[in-house]
Structures are given as C-alpha cells and as structure tokens.
Design brief:
Blueprint: H1 3-28, H2 33-40, H3 44-52, H4 59-69, H5 73-77
Helix pairs in contact: 1-3, 2-3
C-alpha cells in the first residue's frame, strides 16, 4: 500500500478546504484580496495562493487573518 499518496491527498484537501474557508470569511468581512493582504502585510498573490490551496499559510498569518476577519481560530478550522 502507498500511504504517502493517501496522506498527500488528505493534506491537499485540508489546504483546499482551509482556502475556501479563508475566502468565505474574507468575503463576509467585505474585503478584497488586496485589502486583506495589505492589512496583514503580504502580497495579494500570496493570499490568493492560500485561498486556492496552492500554498499553506504560516500559523502566525492564520492568526492575523482571524483577527482581521473577527473570528476565532476554531471557526476557521471548523473544530
């Protein structure tokens, strides 16, 4: 069995779901990608990559986004 592929697939799905959730909360906050990115001092492309699941945000960036969107970490992670 190749568990490596299964694990990579699960990680990709988790990142995609996190990205969709980030985008949902950004929209709810009434912010464009550029506005949100400017407020936490990253590029719009970086935020876009997080929202599409192409890249994974650092924990500190996730915390900043939660503060910006006025949500708790548990809401973002759907715990």
């Amino acid at each position: 069995m190749n568990f490596g592929c299964v694990q990579k697939g699960k990680i990709r799905m988790m990142l995609h779901n996190l990205g969709e959730t980030l985008a949902k909360f950004r929209h709810a906050a009434g912010l464009t990608q550029q506005e949100a990115a400017d407020r936490i001092h990253i590029s719009r492309q970086c935020l876009g990559n997080w929202e599409t699941g192409t890249r994974e945000p650092r924990f500190t960036d996730v915390v900043q986004l939660c503060q910006l969107y006025g949500i708790g970490l548990e809401q973002l992670l759907k715990v």
